[in-house]
Amino acid sequence: MTARLENGTLPTTLLHCLADGSCKTIDELDATLSLDRGQISDGAFRLIMRGYVERIEKGCYQLTPAGVDAAARGEILKGGPIRPDTASVRKPVYDTFRQRIWTAMRMGGNFTIGDIVMVAAKAEDKDAENNARWYVRRLKSAGYVIELPIRQRGTKLTSSGHKRFRLLKDTGTKAPVYRPKTKTLHDYNLREDVPCSK
Question: Starting at the edge strand that comes first in sequence, how are the strands of the sheet with 60-63 ordered?
Fold first, then answer.
């Protein structure tokens, strides 16, 4: 069983592991740290939201200049709101559940609904799994996400497995928002509405 860590421990551990400024993959971090892949993803997500880490390519993470400075200072991150505390750091997008889901999907690779919920959900997020499933369906209908043909094997004998997805259309940091009246996704990165097929 994975040990439960304090909120600030994961991002702090990852911050100092990336302190040399190199781009490290999840596989490299997994081999170096005594954390599981879910914890590494969670820590990376929190650092991205603080403006301390950027995704150079799918599954490869590197400190931003602000992150390098934080590591050099020996900064110890604490739990609480995931927002930068200095004006010099790029402001994150609003900390909504769907924004966190979008950020989790942008971290690269294939994912299941359970994967992104594990990374993005907070205790106060109600019905997180159904909320994530609804949002992924909207992204899929607009061509942002594809469903992969092979499911991830479930842990129960009677399980048919978990649907796997991949983000195809990564347009930027801001999560697209569904507009029910026009049945479109408004993409703040492109500054345009994208029609949904269903």
Answer: 24-25, 60-63, 53-57
CB 94 within 8 A of CB 81: no
The CATH 1.10.10.10 portion of the chain extends over 1-92
Distance of alpha carbon 195 from alpha carbon 179, whole angstroms: 10
DSSP 3-state assignment of 1? coil
What fold is seen in the domain 109-195?
Arc Repressor Mutant, subunit A (1.10.10)
Whether the per-residue pLDDT at 140 is higher than 50: the answer is: yes
Where helices occur in the chain by DSSP H, the ranges are 9-17, 26-32, 37-50, 65-72, 97-106, 113-120, 128-141
Q: What are the pLDDT digits (tens) for 64-95?
A: 888 888 888 888 877 544 444 343 333 444 56
Q: How far apart are the C-alpha atoms of 99 and 93, rounded to whole Å?
A: 7
Contacts of 191 (CB under 8 A, 6+ apart): none
Residue 151 is classified by DSSP as P
Burial class (CB in 10 A: 0-12, 13-18, 19+), 102: buried
Mean pLDDT across the stretch 132-142?
A: 94
The yes or no reply on domain 1-92 and CATH 3.40.190.170 is: no
Position 86 scores a pLDDT of 40
Query: What's the pLDDT tens digit per position in 17-55?
Result: 888 877 888 888 888 888 887 788 778 888 887 888 877
